[in-house]
Amino acid sequence: MSTEGKSWGKKEDIGDENTEQAKFANKDNTPGAMHRPATKFHNKIGSSEFPAESNNRYHLYVSESCPWAHRCHVVWRLKSLQNIVGLTLTGWKLENISHTPPFDDYHGWDFVESGSGSYSYSEPNGFKFIEDLYEKAHPGYRQEWESRGQRPYYAVPVLYDTKTEKIVSSESAEIIQMLNEAFEEFAPTTLNLEPANLKSKMEEVNSIVYPTINDGVYRCGFAGSQQAYENAYKSHWEGMDKIEALLGEQRFLTGEEFTLSDVRLWTTLARYDTVYFSHFKTNRSMVKDMPNLYRFLRDVYRIEGVKSTLNLEWIKKHYYWSQRMVNPTGIWPLGMATEDESYWEKSDDLPPVYTL
C-alpha cells in the first residue's frame, strides 16, 4: 500500500529568485516533499508610493500563533513602534485548512477584538478574515490560486497601507527589515538589529536557519511521503546540530550582539517543545535537552519586550486544532513542560539580562 500523500505547495509556486522562498527553496524532488509557495507582495517603505510616516498610516497584521508573523511582532515591540505603526492580532484558528480542493470554506485567519498580555487591539479596517484584506488590496487574489488548483495563500504577517489600501509586503523577512530601519526618524530608540558590519554573518546563519529550522520543521510536518519526511528530518537535525554547536561558542548567532537573525531563530524555538517535537515529528530531541539552544531560548525570552509577545496557549491550539491534515482529531495536549513558568524562568546558567 502506498504511503504517499498530498503535500503543501508546488515547485512552480516558489516564485522568482528574489523571494525568500526561492533563495532557500527545498531542493528535495522526492514525491511528497513540501515546497513553500512564495509570498506575493514585496513593496518597500521609503519608496515614492510608500513613504515613511509616523501617523499609523501603516498597519501590521500578525498572528500570535504563526512564527513568521511573531518575528514581526517582536521587532515591532523592540523598536517601540506602538505609536507609529498600528498592530492587529488575528485569532488562533485557521478553519477548513486543506491541501486538496475545494477551498470554498477557507478564508484564512479570522480577527478577534482582543489579544493577550498587554495587547488589546480592534480591527480598524472592517475585515472579518485575512482573505478580506487580500481581496481589498488585490481583487481576484483567491481566483489566482484556485485556478491552479491551489489553496489561496493568505499569509501573515501583512504590512498594509491604510491610505492607498494596498499591501506593502507579506514577506516577514522584508517586514522585519523595514520595521528595523524605515521608521528611524520617528522611533524613540536608536536600536539597530541589522548593523552593517554583521550583515554577511547574518546572511550566513540565515542560510542555515531558514531551510533547516524555520521552514525545516514544516518540511517534516507537512511531508506527504515517508521518504520526504525522512529527508526533511535529516536536514533539520543537521541544521539544529550546527546551531547548537555555534551557540556553544558565542551568546548569539553572529557573536555577542542581538540581531534580526536571532529573532528569526527564536520564534521557531519558542514553539519547538510545545508543537514541532510531537506535532511535526521532529522528535529526536527537545530544545530543553540541547543546552546551548535552551540557554539561547531563555536568554532572549528575558530581553525586555519579548516575553509579552509569546502566547503559548494560542500557539498550541492553532497547530493541533487547525492542522487536521496532521492531527485529524483537533485535540490539543495538556501538561506540557513549556506551560510551567520554570521552563522559561530558569536562569542559573544565564549571563546578565541583555540590554538593547
From TrEMBL:
It comes from Triparma strigata. The active site is at residues 66, 218. GO terms for molecular function: glutathione transferase activity. SUPFAM superfamilies: GST C-terminal domain-like (SSF47616), Thioredoxin-like (SSF52833). Pfam families: GST_C_2 (PF13410), GST_N_2 (PF13409). Glutathione binds at residues 109, 171-172. Residues 1-47 are annotated as: Disordered. The record marks 276, 319 as: Lowers pKa of active site Cys. Residues 168-329 form the GST C-terminal domain. CDD domains: GST_C_Omega_like. This is GST C-terminal domain-containing protein.
